[in-house]
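User: Just a sanity check before I run the rest of the batch. Below are the structure tokens for the first item. I only need the designed sequence back.
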């Protein structure tokens, strides 16, 4: 008696697969009126004609399609060729930072990038491309992959200012797209769970018509800062070394049995592994170093996520 929502997605790296799996597992465990089936593909996998055909077949009965970071031209063209015929039938099509031709596949109610001309929304796909080029050192600038997400978030934050100039339904749908993008950038299972529930509750007819999801209770997006200091035993991200040192020496080291004068090892982590909680390898590494008597400081940067 539960309403089934099928989600098909294509992502650049595997971290989002782990986070999406955890989000869907939580929805299927906790909600009595809706269940979600997901089928995920890594971008490089669709080079294989058989995998591309499998993606096509999965889209035949999908409700929602999601993709992100599709910046390889030949693969972008393949993806558009496969997804375009199903776009009108899909309840929602969410294409996050990607090539402009991929982002034009976006469809969320009345929100349609191909139908909006002028203003920040009309040129959103091109602006995303320009933000990425600047982050990667375009026009003679020094590459800075970590600036991509910062630049993208700044761009996203400007969009609500123009929503008041759009018709009611279009403003609502554009806001849902912006919230979905922020959930996606947040990357945690909780963010992705909220994104899926929000989209299903508003745009999948079998779910929306019965109003089985209380949209008012869905959490707002929570996005990690682009740079920070992380430790698996802390519930918060530290903004500075001084802040981290105070917590580490006063709270954690005594519990871990590590001397305050022990050798200090610095680790640079990939942000997407932390935000999606695909961090088991980091946790094991930190625990082993501390077990052997070393102090550890782990910084992360989005530069490792967006510099490829």
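Assistant: Here's the designed sequence for the first item:
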């Amino acid at each position: 008696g539960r309403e089934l929502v099928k989600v098909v997605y294509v992502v650049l790296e595997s971290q989002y697969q782990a986070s999406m799996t955890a989000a869907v597992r939580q929805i299927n465990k906790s909600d009595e009126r809706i269940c979600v089936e997901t089928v995920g593909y890594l971008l490089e996998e669709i080079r294989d004609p058989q995998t591309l055909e499998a993606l096509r077949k999965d889209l035949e009965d999908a409700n929602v399609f999601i993709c992100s970071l599709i910046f390889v031209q030949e693969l972008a063209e393949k993806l558009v060729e496969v997804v375009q015929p199903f776009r009108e039938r899909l309840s929602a099509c969410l294409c996050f930072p990607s090539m402009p031709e991929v982002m034009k596949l976006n469809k969320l109610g009345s929100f349609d990038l191909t139908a909006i001309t002028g203003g920040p929304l009309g040129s959103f796909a091109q602006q995303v491309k320009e933000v990425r080029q600047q982050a990667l050192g375009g026009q003679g600038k020094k590459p800075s992959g970590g600036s991509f997400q910062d630049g993208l978030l700044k761009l996203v934050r400007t969009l609500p200012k123009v929503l008041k100039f759009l018709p009611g339904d279009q403003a609502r749908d554009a806001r849902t797209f912006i919230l979905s993008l922020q959930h996606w950038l947040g990357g945690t299972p909780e963010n992705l769970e909220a994104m899926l529930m929000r989209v299903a509750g508003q745009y999948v007819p079998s779910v929306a018509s019965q109003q089985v999801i209380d949209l008012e209770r869905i959490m707002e997006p929570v996005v990690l800062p682009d740079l920070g200091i992380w430790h698996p035993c802390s519930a918060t991200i530290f903004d500075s070394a001084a802040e981290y040192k105070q917590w580490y020496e006063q709270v954690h080291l005594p519990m871990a049995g590590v001397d305050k004068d022990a050798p200090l090892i610095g680790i640079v982590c990939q942000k997407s592994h932390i935000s999606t909680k695909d961090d088991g390898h980091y946790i094991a590494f930190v625990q082993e170093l501390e077990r052997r008597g070393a102090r550890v400081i782990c910084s992360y940067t989005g530069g490792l996520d967006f510099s490829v």
